[in-house]
Amino acid sequence: MGGNQSLPKITAQDKAILDLKLQRDQLRQYQKKIQAIQDREQAIAKVHLEAGNKERALVALRRRKYQQSLLVKTDGQLENLEQLVSTIEFSLVELSVLHGLKQGNDVLKEIHKEMNIESVEKLLEETAEAREYQREIGDMLANNLSLDDEDAVQKELEEMQAEALGDKAGEELQLPSVPLPSVPKEDPVKSPETDPVKSKERVAVAA
Predict the structure, then answer these.
(1) Distance (Å, rounded) from C-alpha 124 to C-alpha 115?
(2) What's the CA angle centered on 116, arms 107 and 105, to 5 degrees?
(3) What whole-number distance in Å separates Cα of residue 199 and Cα of residue 87?
(4) Are 130 and 122 in contact (CB under 8 A)?
(5) Cα(15)–Cα(9) distance, rounded to whole angstroms?
(6) pLDDT tens digit sequence for 99-128
(7) In which region does residue 184 sit, left (phi positive, over 0), alpha (psi from -120 to 50) or beta (all else)?
(8) pTM beyond 0.90
(9) With the CA atoms of 20, 73, 34 and 24 taken in that order, what torsion angle do they form, in degrees rounded to the nearest 10?
């Protein structure tokens, strides 16, 4: 029983499409048969013409022409069948899409029922009450604390903020410091007063 339940259900539309596809396949087989007859009649016409029997060659070509007219008719019928199959299959797809849209619309309606105006207003009121309660608790705690305790709380908050900023700054990329090149010291210029040789020369000139 479980195996029978798992089998897909064949609908009337499936049967109709299957019948149309079978007819299409039969027409294609018939076209192949007509094409083979045309080729054979053409070959017969060539043989009779080479044998000098023009009348029989003409009859073979007439039969070939008739088969060609049948082939044109089957082409039209085949095109109609293929269009009909495509139309039915596309209609089934549209039906499936419409069914999906209907289900989605039903789901939206259920959601809208749950999200009515009264529920939204009640939720907003509860949120506002929660915020007011939190504010009252904060005010009550602030009023029960001494000035020293309040200063300590503010100081602790500032320390936590500074620590958070320090951690954030530590995560940023730090470039390594590059040492500056050392500049060689130049010898000081000796002045005449500090240079003993020049001092002696200056004294000699003066004498």
Answers:
(1) 12
(2) 20
(3) 122
(4) no
(5) 11
(6) 888 888 888 888 777 766 676 677 777 788
(7) beta
(8) no
(9) -10
Nearest-angstrom CA–CA distance, 74 and 83: 14
Q: Which helix (H) or strand (E) holds 108?
A: helix 54-114
Instruction: Return the exposure string of 93-122: e unless at least 16 CB atoms fall within 10 Å of the residue's CB, then b.
Output: eeeeeeeeeeeeeeeeeeeeeeeeeeeeee
Instruction: Give the Cα separation of 157 and 110 in Å (integer).
Output: 48
Cβ–Cβ < 8 Å for 78, 24:
yes
55-89 confidence digits (pLDDT tens): 888 888 898 888 888 888 888 888 888 888 888 88
**CA 81, CA 27: separation in Å to the nearest integer?**
10
Looking at residue 11, its amino acid is T
DSSP assignments along 122-188, one per residue: HHHHHHHHHHHHHHHHHHHHHHHS-HHHHHHHHHHHHHHHHHHHHHHHHHS--PPPPPPPPPPPPPP
The Cα–Cα gap between 23 and 153 comes to: 89
79: exposed, middle or buried (Cβ count in 10 Å: 0-12, 13-18, 19+): exposed
For 150, residues 6+ apart whose C-beta sits below 8 A from its C-beta are 142
Q: Rounded to an integer, what distance in angstroms lies between the CA atom of residue 27 and that of residue 13?
A: 21
